[in-house]
Write a structure and sequence with these properties.
The complex is a heterodimer. By secondary structure, chain A is mainly alpha-helical. Chain A is built from eleven helices and two strands, in the order αααββαααααααα. Chain A has one domain. In chain A, strands 1-2 form a two-stranded antiparallel ribbon. Chain A starts with 25 loop residues before the first helix and ends in a 9-residue tail after the last helix. The N terminus of chain A is likely disordered. Chain B has two domains: 216 residues, 3-Layer(aba) Sandwich (Rossmann fold), CATH 3.40.50.300; 43 residues. Helices cover 28% and strands 26% of the residues of chain B. The longest helix of chain B has 16 residues. The N terminus and C terminus of chain B are likely disordered. Classes of the chains: A mainly alpha, B alpha/beta. Chain B: Its main location: membrane.
Amino acid sequence: MSTTASTTGPDRLDQRQTTARRLPGTLRQGLVRGGVELLQFVRERDSVIFGFAYPILMLAIFSTVFGDDDPIVAGGMTVSFAQYFLPGMVATGVMLSTFQTLAISIAVERDDGTLKRLRATPLPATSYFLGKVFLSLVTVLAQTALLLAVAALAFDVPLPDDAAHWATFAWVFVLGTAAGAVCGVAYSSVPSSGRSASAVVVTPLLLLQFTSGVFFPVTQLPGWMLDLSSLFPLKWIAQGMRSVFLPDAFAAVEPAEAWQHGATAAVLAAWLVVALVVGARTFRWRRHDDG
Amino acid sequence: MLDGMQTSDPLAVRVRGLRKRYGSARSGYKDAVAGLDLDVSRGEIVAVLGPNGAGKTTTVEILEGFRDRDDGEVRVLGEDPRQAGRAWRARIGVVMQDSRDMNELTILEKVRSTAASYPDSRDPMEVIAAVGLAEKARARTRGLSGGQRRRLDVALGIVGRPELLFLDEPTTGFDPQARRSFWDLVTSLRDGGTTILLTTHYLDEAAQLADRVVVVRDGVVVATGTPDTLGGPGARTPVVAWDDGGVRRTERTDLPTAVVGRLMAAAGPGGEVPGLSITRPTLEDVYLSLIGESSPTDGVGTDNSSRKAA
């Protein structure tokens, strides 16, 4: 925007006399940050393999191992293992691409000086988060699309063919993504350093995967564990996704014997609002021990 | 010459009675900055010198708006950094110590994305060329040497066309040639109208770059002046030294030629004065005497040895 004819010598860097120009808009800077985030993401191959491909690999491995020998039956309906496993992997992918990616990357960037450097510029904090959310959106959309494609093409999972199920998918997906993203921002202040971030973020999420009905039916869990998991978003995203990808008869084997769409929306919306408020209050540009 | 429209204030930085302490009620408080005064005029390069823990970095971070202060008055480009907003941020540039962020981006990507936050940024490629990284513009930052990384830091600090640039120990780890070219870059920025506040450990760097040197010790300014006059006229008095029958004799005098004449006369025609030398204290000598031997300044009642490194 300000390219001048290139001259030689030190006067290339002349201080320009300007009247006050307007600062670039928050949204525009957010898009620039989004581009930066995306570039960094695709260049860090390990994060692509482990974060992005994890649910897809899990679906492929589990479905291959258990195959069709082990169909799941409920209410007189039979579904393949892959079909039963798919909703949990969609839900896991949402939490990985939002909560886990954001919480770890913000904690690391607080540690390695990225946040301090950005704070030295006029970049609004909102633009920084817009960039993060942009990356989460792109990865979660690509990841979910790939997951559904692998499920349908490689494992013959029937996908819904009516608008009502896809509408349910859309709002659970959007609400889950939004809640996961703001929870990730809020949680990023918990790890005391960038080095500890992975452990502090991954471990609770991994535990939740086991207790939220992602890997095996929640009916096999003790009641207290299920109650505890019901406090967190993952259980509700997984349940919402089951209502999309499993036959309606499977509602009968849910703990509440229903899909509970109302409760799902309420819990996810509550997390969204609470994490937004908490995140806005607790977000730190610097480490705890740094002045 | 450059402000005109911004403000009639000739000072880019004005600090009075700045105080910052660290610690807690339990472990006791330490004053990192203990009543510091500092003025930087527009268009000037000011070097802040001082030993580790003198309060240099703490002071600079307060001016940059990164740290809060406990007491004192601070104006940077006419505003209090504590309350200053994005428009103010767009007018200052910060070159950090020890950055290791965003390693997967190329130099050009980093400079370009940073430029996008400023209302009137410089052309990213011109800035990269000015810091001598044109050939590396499309290389990822992960593979850069320490000196190249510092020059990239400078590029990021100046791409927004700042009126005031903070350089925190910019040439640490540079080889002599890289330091030379870096000094040329800083001088060209000043010639272009940028005000520069520099902290450094290197006396030759201060002598080379600074219009004015400020020596900080124990959180207060103990001396200020141009590199040639720092410490007052007495500090530069030449010293004549010679051997007198195996004993080293010295004489501090403003008239060294007269002393030498006297010695010559004593030695007789054609006689040699053994071990004769005339030395003028260097900036380093003056600096060392300022931080080592000057009397403790008031307002510093704490234990220096355990003070938080600043």
